[in-house]
Design a protein that fits this description.
globular; two-stranded antiparallel ribbon; single chain; 78% helix; mainly alpha; 2 strands
Length: 459
């Protein structure tokens, strides 16, 4: 059994290392350049699209584009935005944050392609609800002969979206907080109780389907991001004179050659890889959610979808980085992750460790809500709509197990499936890039012609 676990871990570490980095960042950079830097040039259009409230977007079936975006962000704004940033700083220094920003810009372009293709290649359930995702994009966009690739994604998606790490780390963080506060000792019984509590909370939301998940995300995401922003603002205000030095260190360390070109490349890879793992760009999950949007305009959905990495890898990760660089201790060896962030906030804010634990809990739970939907859609694609209910039940009950038991082999298997989701997704995005470009040109040419006609009418 130990040899199987070791083999799984080795395979997962290999695939989730440079191969996954090359696929997500290299493929994303290709799409960024091919699209004419859409994530930079069309950012104002994306913000305008999010503000619009067109009558065709009032969802009789499905959800709105804004709800889809917030549901995606609910999944990606998780522990990685805190623990992942702390690890990036510990391993790569302040310069890693700059490369996280670059990765976010590249990821925005990838998400744009996911959003456009999600609307172009989706189907409708018998009740009229739109559904889609990489499995539909592959079979509809590339043809039935590519179905094995779609099946590969769906199988990987069923297991890759299980919240093994989130449930385990959340239980650990809550048990540690309870122990340090003298409320209860960290024991298997406590973790089992926390797992049951998680399952009850998650089950009460996901049982209502996509509309309830979207409704909760619409409230929860703005609340937790705003609360986290207030906490970081307090830290910044307490040490305002050091803030310019923080940003100076991010830019200077990003291009530092003191340790040679190899060190510079290492810092860039650490930052970019962490951002890619945080925003899920190219993994395919975002297209599952955006396909449920009531919006019928593919490019408009793509514009809104590309705001996701700007929020999670851009805004939230920057908040974490600034707070940790002002308060954190990076002199320790090894990856500190979540414990480093909790210690830093505890030193900077009265009861900060407990406040951050509460925010982490919201982050983790919001991820569980959305990931259960991703997995259920993969199950429905493989086994029919009825199977999605059984998957949701199994997903909810699994949280109890993941919270109570250390599962290193399961974590490795989950990472492996995560990589197996990314490879089919990125391949399909690259192969279908021309249809995205065609839709993009048609959309903006139509809008420009409409604007010209309006100006002539009012002249």
């Amino acid at each position: 059994m130990t040899s199987i676990s070791d083999t799984l871990t080795q395979v997962a570490d290999t695939l989730c290392g440079y191969p996954l980095f090359i696929v997500l960042i290299g493929g994303g950079l290709f799409l960024f350049l091919y699209s004419g830097m859409v994530s930079v040039r069309r950012l104002p259009d994306a913000l305008a699209a999010l503000r619009e409230n067109r009558s065709g977007d009032a969802p009789q079936r499905g959800i709105s584009s804004a709800q889809a975006l917030l549901s995606v962000v609910a999944a990606t704004v998780g522990m990685g935005n805190i623990a992942g940033v702390a690890i990036a700083l510990a391993m790569g220094g302040p310069g890693a944050i700059f490369w996280m920003w670059i990765s976010a810009i590249v990821g925005m372009s990838t998400k744009y392609h996911e959003g456009v293709l999600a609307i172009l290649h989706r189907s409708t359930r018998p009740d009229g609800t739109p559904v889609g995702g990489p499995m539909h994009i592959i079979t509809s966009g590339l043809g039935r002969r590519w179905r094995p690739l779609a099946v590969t994604f769906a199988i990987a998606g069923m297991f890759g979206t299980l919240c093994i790490i989130n449930a385990n780390q959340l239980a650990e963080a809550l048990a540690t907080a309870a122990s340090s506060a003298g409320l209860a000792d960290d024991s298997p019984a406590i973790r089992l109780s926390l797992g049951i509590l998680m399952a009850l909370i998650v089950g009460s939301v996901v049982i209502g389907g996509i509309r309830r998940i979207a409704s909760v995300a619409t409230v929860l995401v703005p609340f937790m991001v705003t609360t986290y922003f207030i906490m970081v603002a307090y830290i910044v205000a307490s040490d305002i004179e050091a803030v310019p030095g923080v940003f100076a260190s991010i830019f200077s360390e990003a291009f530092s050659l003191r340790a040679g070109w190899g060190a510079l490349a290492g810092v860039a890879i650490i930052g970019a890889r962490r951002a890619a793992l945080v925003n899920d760009a190219g993994v395919g999950t975002a297209s599952i959610m955006h396909a449920t949007s009531a919006n019928k305009e593919p490019v408009r959905e793509g514009l809104i979808a590309m705001l996701g990495p700007a929020i999670d890898s851009g805004f939230v990760c920057t908040l974490t980085a600034v707070a940790l660089l002002l308060t954190g201790d990076f002199s320790q060896s090894g990856p500190q992750g979540l414990s480093l962030a909790i210690d830093a906030f505890g030193r900077a804010i009265p009861f900060g460790e407990y406040l951050l634990t509460a925010i982490v809990s919201c982050f983790a739970l919001s991820s569980m809500f959305t990931y259960s939907f991703y997995g259920s859609r993969c199950a429905a694609y493989l086994f029919g709509e009825r199977s999605s209910r059984w998957y949701t039940l199994a997903f909810t009950l699994s949280l109890i197990l993941f919270a109570a038991v250390p599962l290193s082999a399961a974590v490795a298997m989950c990472d492996l499936f995560y990589a197996l989701m990314a490879f089919p997704t990125m391949l399909s995005l690259i192969l279908l890039r021309k249809s995205v470009r065609k839709a993009t040109l048609q959309y903006f040419n139509r809008d420009n012609n409409y604007a010209d006609t309006t100006r002539e009418a009012t002249a």
